[in-house]
Write a structure and sequence with these properties.
Chain lengths: ~110, ~120
């Protein structure tokens, strides 16, 4: 069964460093998303992406965040200068229009020290 | 804006017993409702969804959920739980059916199964 793949599974970085979280969505999907889950809290929407542009973003998704689909398969989330409060599990999801179901990856745990 | 409430933070159930996890939503129109399960160290797996039609929906692993518009609820049920059902369960609401919408999640219910 097709699945969303995220790498790395765990990323440790120093405060102020840039990180790039990578995702390979399901191949025929057109809509892509990032969510995050701070430890012990609920899953929160960050951004949705379609047709090579951001469709919607939350207030969390400030200028430090960016997303990109650099080629036909990858979907990335970049945090330019990480802060301690960026420590969280980041989930990538994808969906197709026909089924309208978001399929999630296993997540990348980001630890900012 | 839409919101989801899962009033039970933690539920403990004996193996073989029945289960009901509560979910209430707030949204002005007909929502699109989902239950996801997250096992330790895993991602979010879709259990079931409600878009329209029959208000009782069947999902994977023997789960079902019932949409009750009058109560703004979408409770998840299972007649007999297995030890492997121990996980975190999230209810979520989506606001459109056009493929490009955000999901708003509840805070989750952690399910513990005792022998």
């Amino acid at each position: 069964e097709p699945e969303v793949t995220q790498t790395p599974s765990h990323q440790v970085t120093q405060m102020g460093q840039e990180v790039i979280l990578r995702c390979v969505p399901i191949s025929n999907h057109l809509y892509f998303y990032w969510y995050r889950q701070i430890l012990g809290q609920k899953v929160e929407f960050l951004v949705s992406f379609y047709n090579n542009e951001i469709s919607e973003k939350s207030e969390i998704f400030d200028d430090q965040f960016s997303v990109e689909r650099p080629d036909g398969s990858n979907f990335t989330l970049k945090i330019r200068s990480t802060k301690l409060e960026d420590s969280a599990m980041y989930f990538c999801a994808s969906s197709d229009r026909a089924k309208n179901i978001q399929y999630f990856g296993a997540g990348t745990r980001l630890s900012v020290l | 804006a839409q919101s989801v409430t899962q009033p039970d933070i933690h539920i403990t159930v004996s193996e073989g017993a029945s289960l009901e996890l509560r979910c209430n939503y707030s949204y002005g129109a007909t929502p699109y409702l989902f239950w996801y399960v997250q096992s330790p160290g895993q991602g979010l797996q879709l259990l079931l969804k409600y878009f329209s039609g029959d208000t009782l929906v069947q999902g994977i692993k023997g789960f079902e959920a019932e949409f009750k518009r009058s109560q703004s609820s979408f409770n998840l049920r299972k007649p007999s739980v297995h030890w492997s059902d121990a996980a975190e369960y999230f209810c979520a609401v989506g606001i459109s059916n056009f493929g490009n919408e955000k999901l708003t999640f509840g805070t989750g219910t952690r399910l513990t199964i005792i022998p």
